[in-house]
Amino acid sequence: MDSHIETPPDDEHESAYSGLLVNDAHWAFGTDFEDPLAGVDTTIPDGVDAATLGTYALMLGDDSLVMSHRVSEWTSNAPDLEDDIALSNIALDLLGQARLLLARAAKADESLVPVLPEGSPAPPEDALAFFREAHQLRNVRLAELVNGDFAEATVRVLLFSVWRLAVWERLHSSRDHVLAAVAAKGVKELAYHRDYAARWFVTLAQGTDESRRRLLAALEELWPLWPELFDTHPVEAAAAEAGVGVDPATVREAAEGVLDQVLAAADVASPASPRRSGVLGRTGRDGMHGEPLSRMLAEMQSVARAHPRGLW
Amino acid sequence: MILKSRTTERARRVAERVTDPELPMLTLADLGVLRDVDVVADDHVVVDITPTYSGCPAMAAMRDDLVRELRAAGFGTVDVRVSLHPAWTTDWITPRGRAALAAAGISPPGPAPSHDGPIPLTLLPTARQVRCPRCDSPATDLVSEFGSTACKAQYRCASCLEPFDHVKEI
């Protein structure tokens, strides 16, 4: 009669503790999937400068990492359970992309990876995520802003995904096998993110006076950072020239075409606000960031930095 | 060679039995995640798996489970490699896998969309012919494109009123 409470011997997932008893020590702040690129062809394509490829992958990886972290801050804070789950899923997809891209950056150019205290088991992608200062991150500034309300999250995910999808739809023909594969997978994920945000954009714009007011305020606030997404950094130009990357300026028209469809469906005009300038011409891709990124990193990195040899 | 292929066959059978940690009614073979199993020397086996979603946390568990099961079957060295290309698609879920999902109350995916050129924007809820896995009613509503795991959407049946998961097409 009691046989149903016994753990079936062939079901390896019954006990949450069984995994802790094998495989002893793991790096405390990442997963134990040792190398996300194990078995992947990471040869640098002929004629491609390793530093260019590495820094280009780092830029894309930092966009994912920082955006993922901001979106993940919505977990348990979204207006309802469905959107909490949706935003958490979006953050998770972006984190997975970040992991592959940062691992790619490290494989292409080891000199990018911070040197950790001897005995640290942190894999290179985690060293890049947890042990760099704000000025070493190359993400676009749109990703790093402090979160606002749900309308702000909607507009930010929309702008980010429309732009990124347009870039990645071209990146999947990269001569670099890793970037091509990451992009081919990523476009499917980004299309879900974009459409989710686009539907909420229209819903909020066509909802109540209050939801429309908040949506327009968010668009007004984020619009100045939209043009920066299409700036061509010299590294992006070199990566595009070498056939491994995409010059974001070349996707501007495609991205604006998609965004215009959303604005038209929502009956919202593009704001006229001018672009936010850089500091002496330097923007996110140059490592020039606002103070909120430093605070975000302080929170994200503090435990790993306090325990660089952390095992559990 | 006959001996080697027999060993490979044995390794393959062991690897194919390993189940997905989030969808334990599915084996990795049924899910289409297991791409290749090869015995390269004596007791050294190399397994290729492909991630479902970039951030799917189940990948680490799959790898550990493969290593454990193959070691238990006598393979001393087990390498699990990641195969990123071609990207995983729900079209690789086998008919048996689809039947197992449905039997467990999870609606299996329809055909994955294919695109020539840019993926068009869809502002309306994704149109799918989803039947309730419990009562088979075609009257179902999409609640959210994002569900309990990265690979699922949430639905609700308008007939029996039960909520259920649908594996979304990618």
Describe the structure.
The complex is a heterodimer of chains A (312) and B (170). Chain A is mainly α. Chain A has one domain (47-269, 278-305): Ferritin, core subunit, four-helix bundle (Ferritin, Up-down Bundle). Chain A contains 10 helices and no strands. In chain A, helix 2 runs antiparallel to helix 3 (81-108) and helix 5 packs antiparallel against helix 6 (177-205). The longest helix of chain A has 29 residues, at 177-205. Residues 1-9 of chain A have low confidence and may be disordered. Chain B is of the alpha/beta class. Chain B has 2 domains: 2-82, Fe-S cluster assembly (FSCA) (GMP Synthetase, Chain A, domain 3, 2-Layer Sandwich), CATH 3.30.300; 93-113 and 126-167, no CATH class. Chain B contains 4 helices and 7 strands; from the N terminus they run H-H-E-E-H-E-H-E-E-E-E. In chain B, strands 4-7-6-5 form a 4-stranded mixed sheet. A 3-stranded mixed sheet of chain B has the order 1-2-3. In chain B, a hairpin with a 2-residue loop joins strand 1 and strand 2. Chain B starts with a helix and ends with a strand.
Q: Could you list the spans of chain A in which at least 5 consecutive residues all have pLDDT below 50?
A: 1-9
Which oligomerization state do the chains in this entry correspond to?
heterodimer
Strand content of chain B: 15-25%
Total DSSP helices of chain B: 4
Write the element-wise H/E pattern of chain B from the N-terminal end onward: HHEEHEHEEEE
Q: Tally of extended strands of chain A?
A: 0
**Topology as H/E string of chain A?**
HHHHHHHHHH
Low-confidence stretches of chain B: none
Largest Cβ-defined interface? A-B, 56 and 47 residues
**Largest sheet strand order of chain B:** 4-7-6-5
Please outline the major beta sheet of chain B: 4 strands, mixed
**In whole angstroms, how far apart are the ends of chain A?**
39 Å
Percentage of β-strand residues of chain A:
under 5%
What is the global morphology of chain A? globular
The CATH architecture name of the largest domain in chain B reads 2-Layer Sandwich
CATH domain class name of chain A: Mainly Alpha
Overall pLDDT metric of chain B: 91
- Average pLDDT across residues of chain A? 91
CATH class of the largest domain in chain B: Alpha Beta
Relevant CATH superfamily of chain A? Ferritin, core subunit, four-helix bundle
Domain PaaD zinc beta ribbon (chain B): 124-168
Domain MIP18 family-like (chain B): 16-83
InterPro entries (chain B): Fe-S_Maturation_MIP18, FSCA_dom_sf, MIP18-like, PaaD-like, Zn_ribbon_PaaD
Pfam families (chain B): FeS_assembly_P, Zn_ribbon_PaaD
